[in-house]
Specification:
This protein is mainly alpha-helical and 299 residues long. The chain has one domain. The strands form 4 sheets. Strands 1-2 form a two-stranded antiparallel ribbon. The protein has a two-stranded parallel ribbon with strand order 3-4. Strand 7 and strand 8 form a beta hairpin. The radius of gyration is 24 Å and the shape is globular. The termini are far apart.
Amino acid sequence: MSIQFAVRITACFALASVCTLLSAAQQTTPPSNPDPSTQAQPPAPTKDQAASAGQQVPTDTNKDKDKKDTNANGQGKVVGTSNDRLFYTLPNFLSIENTAQLPPLTAKQKFAVVARGTFDPVQFPWWAFLSALSQAQDSEPGYGQGWEAYGKRFGTAAADGIIENFMTAAVLPSLLHQDPRFYQSGKGGFLRRSEYAVSRIFVTRTDSGHSQFNYSEIVGSAMSAGISTFSYHPKSTYLSTPTNPHKFVGSDRTLVNAADVWGSQVAYDTITIVVKEFWPDIHRKLAKKRKVDTVGATP
């Protein structure tokens, strides 16, 4: 597990770094000529102008306001969350760059923001990579080899991620009234901030703003590991191989495997949350560097 986990982490941040470079290159490319068909339209009349002309002035109802709030920037942003992405790529919608107390998220909002991040397009190539890695290592050999086996591994990787995300950030936070958001500290040196970030795996806020043991993360990841391990991971079976037409393969539905998956999920979440703590600083430095490079490139 340790080697596979290390490879996953390395590949994740290597992919993110490549996407960061591509994003920076795109942002330094001069814009093309505007399409004549997209010329600016005349501004809509103000409320005073519309009223003087005898036109009906539309008013924002609470329902319309909620709809606007949950669709900010056309991206379905939930109020009290963010549109941020780690390395401009990986969804980071539940991270907040301050420790101020925000209005609590409703259960509907928790599910909405988790669904938005879980089914983000970047997740699909990530699951495809994990499936290819699993196939190359012949992990869970009960699936065998070939495209059919790869499809099963892809479904397993996707289901594992989906269940873990919803259990730790939507289902249990809704039932236990815990806040699934990560509030960046930004105070102190590297060690202090790293300790704070790691502590958030075990300590979280409640919807009312109090500190509480992070049952959502610890218990939620254990539950997701148990659900995935004992429901759709391969059972014991016989496989036909070139050297053994009746090779027996043991079941992966064991407590040891469930504990292994649980440990991997918690370790991955711990590393990710430390990156989330320092990402705003990295983001600002990258933005400053791009600004300097853009000004220097101006003729």
